[in-house]
Amino acid sequence: MSTQKAVQISRIGGTEVLEINQIPIPKPQPGQILVKAAYAGVNFIDTYFRSGLYPVPLPFTLGSEGSGTVEAVGEGVTKYKPGEQVVYYGSGSYTEYLNVPEKAISHVPEGLKLEDAAAILIQGLTALTMLRESYEVKKGDTILIHAAAGGTGLVLVQLAKALGATVIATASSPEKLEIAKQHGADYLVNYSGGEDEWVKEVLGYTKDGEGVEAVFDGVGKATFEGDLRVTKRKGSLISFGNASGAVDPFKINRLGDKNLKLLRPRLFGYVATQEEFDHYTQELFGYLKNGQLKLNIHKVYPLEDIVQAHKDLEGRVTTGKLVLKI
Ligand code: NDP
User: Fold this and answer.
1) Which of 259, 187, 191, 201 is nearest to 230 (CA)?
2) Cα–Cα distance for residue pair 47/52, rounded to 1 Å
3) How far is the CA of 301 from the centre of ligand 1 (A)?
4) Ligand 1 binding pocket mutation candidate from 15, 42, 45 (most atoms within 8 A of CB)
5) Distance (Å) from CA 161 to ligand 1 centroid
6) How remote is the CA of residue 150 from the centroid of ligand 1, in Å?
């Protein structure tokens, strides 16, 4: 067998541009591990590549992370052997076989199922690195987490609680808010009533109505203006995604009104070196092991149902993580 199935796009657009094609199985190059994939995680970023929000060269194989077993290793790779279970991030994971560089892969920790492993790296590392480096959350802080019942949101809520923060969580329905609560959120705000309403509610949960120490916002366009209103003087606004669209151009002198810090981090900038990746991956696995982090898989979709998976994620009907069975 020399070819394999892969979910690709050859043009940008809605879910109609998703294709399942046959592509060659690659050979591992020096420093790479060839993985036989079992599962792929589905992330919102995959929809940005598909829609053209984040431009990529076409044709493009979608998927940003997954889990599976080592099939073969390239020259110089000594840490991994065929048959071992691994979890990884990197481009092109909606496929049966892919090459992964050594600095983006880790052994699956004992006791973690492959299905769960595919659900953890991108959202888990994004949440952890932001709570450590974008704004270092401290015991006693009150922070706001938007889309708190989503994949990244539920990890943020649990890790922020583990670090001692008080968490105000937003979501678009009572059911989603209940899930955020079950994962530790202290205060719940349904933000579908409009900016003035959710801003007022959030401020009402903060000391003297002064606002939160930090906002973690993966919603983007729809919530950015409200974020500026609820962030406390000298607080941090971490805008890390565009689920509702990209944030409009912004005049930086507005930050001076409250001496705010505005960050727009990407995970890959926090785990760019082997050392950083290993450090945060091990810390993340530690939270899983000690029970402070629980994974929430919304649904495992067969690879053939990729259209439905993207529709569900973009249609706001999911909570937690979507996974593809390869
Ligand atoms: P989620 O599981 O969180 O799904 C997105 C959620 O966003 C929805 O469930 C929905 O929750 C909310 N949302 C608000 N407005 C909209 C809208 N107009 N359309 C669709 N959804 C909307 O996805 P992920 O966890 O994969 O990603 C969350 C965010 O984090 C994304 O913006 C993603 O790009 C970002 N991200 C950024 C990374 C980085 O490196 N910077 C890395 C990983 C993720 P509700 O119905 O409650 O509003």
Assistant:
1) 201
2) 8
3) 19
4) 45
5) 20
6) 6
Q: E strands, 29-115, where?
A: 32-42, 60-61, 65-73, 85-89, 97-101, 105-107
Average pLDDT for the chain: 97
102 token code pair = 């050594």
Amino acid sitting at position 241: G
Tell me how far apart the alpha carbons of residues 89 and 35 are, in angstroms, rounded to a whole number: 12
Assembly ipTM: 0.99
CA 228 remoteness from chain centre: 23
∠ CA 319-321-326, rounded to 5°: 140
Name the percent of the chain lying above pLDDT 90: 99
Residue with tokens 């979890």: 87
* Cα 244 → chain centroid: 15
Distance 230 CA to ligand 1 centre (A): 20
186-204 pLDDT, tens digit per residue, is 999 999 999 999 999 999 9
Per-residue confidence at 324, pLDDT binned at 50, 70, 90? very high
Q: Using CB atoms within 10 A of its CB, is residue 186 exposed (0-12), middle (13-18) or buried (19+)?
A: middle
* CA–CA dist 136, 143 (Å, integer): 11
Q: What is the C-alpha separation between 109 and 280, in angstroms, rounded?
A: 14
Amino acid at 302: P
Tell me the domains of the chain and their CATH numbers: 3-120+295-325 (3.90.180.10), 123-266 (3.40.50.720)
Nearest-CA residue for ligand 1 atom 32 is 241
**Ligand 1 pocket test, candidate residues 145, 191, 219, 322, most atoms within 8 A of CB:** 219
Is 219 touching ligand 1 by the criterion CB < 6 Å? yes
What are the pLDDT digits (tens) for 218-265? Answer: 999 999 999 999 999 999 999 999 999 999 999 999 999 999 999 999
| Bond before 24 cis per omega within 30 degrees | no
Q: Could you identify the atom of ligand 1 that is nearest to the CA of residue 321?
A: 2
